[in-house]
Amino acid sequence: MNTTDVARAIAAATSIAASLDLPADDAVVLHNSNKLSLRLTPCDVFARVAPEGEEVAQFEVELAQRLTAVGSPVGWLEPRADPRVYRRDGFAVTLWTYYEPASPPASPAGYAEALERLHTGMRAVDLPSPRFTDRITEAEDVVADPARSPELADADRALLGSRLASLRQAIVGRGAAEQLLHGEPHPGNVLSTKDGPLFIDLETCCRGPVEFDLAHAPVAVGEHYPGVDHGLLDDCRQLVIAMIATWRWELGDQFPNGRRFGEECLRLLRAGPPWPALGTLTEEVDGP
């Protein structure tokens, strides 16, 4: 969000919290891209704010409630507020429990075990959701339309279009079992808490093979997850890189270091395997 929208979003979140008798004299921005993540104090509430019409917050709230009920390792909604989407001044706001970071972060084995428990819980949840291929279609539409990606070079456009199509065919052609997934369980969506790793940001949930989720986690996590098809995991890692490259060139993208991230993804696609996991790529782009 731009500076003006951030100020309005903070005002909306703090106003909603105050109306619920949750004192919010200050807000710390934890993450700012297309959505805003805030720590409201002194009530210590984690707020997620998105422009109305650009979020699936109600889906996320309902899914979080169901996963909490079956004991899945997910962040809880704020217990002092009704579990719903709050709307004010053009923003959709959801309120969540704030967790103090624990140290050290989860080990790869602990991360894998938590993700496996999340997948087990998701198999017990019957909630309509998109398929992972819908995300590929969205990326293909961005690549195919120069009006939506005006700064993408012709050679890069051809590379991404070809790679997205071939990877869709390769992954679907493997016929792997599919289930409800987190969609983006990278380290930025995993909280290290005293109760162990907890997954947040459930708006990206989709149906697909578990390897699609593992493609977002550090490489070592895939080595500890049971029953992985490593060929499929490699295809999924490459797919994630291609989709991320596409989003970084979409008109209006607000991801921090977005263009640098997109350029690195294109370089990796040209260089070929081994394919890094999203978590590793994030560290490389954000590093010195």
Detail the topology: elements first, then pairings:
Blueprint: H1 3-19, E1 24-32, E2 36-42, E3 45-51, H2 57-69, E4 86-88, E5 91-97, H3 108-123, H4 132-144, H5 154-173, E6 179-181, E7 190-193, E8 196-199, E9 206-208, H6 210-214, H7 219-224, H8 230-248, H9 258-271, H10 278-286
Antiparallel strand pairs: 1-2, 2-3, 3-5, 4-5, 6-9, 7-8
Helix pairs in contact: 4-5, 4-8, 5-8, 8-9
Distinctive features:
single chain, two-stranded antiparallel ribbon, 5-stranded antiparallel beta sheet
Low-confidence stretches: none
**How many E strands?**
9
The number of helical elements comes to 10
What coarse outline follows from CA principal-axis ratios?
globular
Largest sheet: number of strands, sense, barrel closure:
5 strands, antiparallel
Q: Tell me what portion of residues adopts beta-strand conformation.
A: 15-25%
User: Which radius of gyration do the C-alpha atoms yield?
Assistant: 19 Å
- Quick check: average pLDDT? 93
The SSE order reads HEEEHEEHHHEEEEHHHHH
Q: Give me the secondary-structure category.
A: alpha+beta
Major sheet: arrangement of strands: 1-2-3-5-4
Span of the ends, CA to CA: 24 Å
